[in-house]
Amino acid sequence: MSQQTPSATAGSSTRLRVTEIFYSLQGEARTVGWPTVFIRLTGCPLRCGYCDTAYAFHGGHWMGLNDIAAEAARYAPQYVTVTGGEPLAQPACNELLQILCDQGYAVSLETSGARPIEGLDERATIVMDLKTPGSGEEAQNLYANIAHLRAHDQVKFVIADRADYEWARAKLREHDLAARCEVLFSPVHGALVPTDLADWILADRLPVRLQIQLHKLLWGDAHGR
């Protein structure tokens, strides 16, 4: 069952439901390895079979946007990532992106691609999944989003097996994704041997970046890391 997490207001203060705010090393995407503040919003309409953040489907607590920004500022970060769940399930997410960008951070948004990305703050980097068949949520892909990706954005395929790889390879070519933005291929942790994925990429000479989740290598499945 999908979880709806609409924004709410208390007086003139817009709020978001937040699962956690924490400081760690970025484990994925272009800024992998950099110390980063993560703002994990609550709720997600998808139920991917390999999901490692199901604890963010429900619960959390309401926070005003300025309070969220103040909590992030405690760490004096250069990088801030807004993630989930599916952060765009809460309509006020873009307001948060705007505030964070205004404060001078390098801001990224991690989204499933099942919600429209048109109109999001141009300064934020979008890291957008295209859900493979192995996720169980392929039908949720909103392909109209591809037209709104910019050169500094990234598309991510999380790949569970050879069938997922061949599907991702076909989508890469069908939409000419590598000409639009950076493309990431990531093996499902514990399901696909990273070396196999690396060999397939090399054999097909794909213009993609292999990524392995750094935080999983360092801390396993620990939350808040």
Write structural notes for this entry.
The chain is of the alpha/beta class and 225 residues long. It has one domain (14-218): TIM Barrel (Alpha-Beta Barrel). It has six helices and ten strands; from the N terminus they run E-E-E-E-H-E-H-E-E-E-H-H-E-H-E-H. Strands 1, 2, 3, 4, 5, 6, 7, 8, 9 and 10 form a ten-stranded mixed sheet that branches. Helix 1 packs across helix 2. The longest helix has 13 residues, at 162-174. Mean pLDDT is 91; it is low at 1-12.
Order of helices and strands: EEEEHEHEEEHHEHEH
The tally of domains stands at 1
**How big a fraction of the residues is strand?**
25-35%
Largest β-sheet summary: 10 strands, mixed
In the predicted model, the low-confidence regions spanning at least 5 consecutive residues are 1-12
Task: Note the overall shape.
Answer: globular
What is the average of the pLDDT values? 91
Number of strands: 10
Oligomer: single chain
The CATH architecture name reads: Alpha-Beta Barrel
Rg from Cα = 17 Å
How much helicity do the residues have?
10-25%
What is the CATH level 1 assignment? Alpha Beta
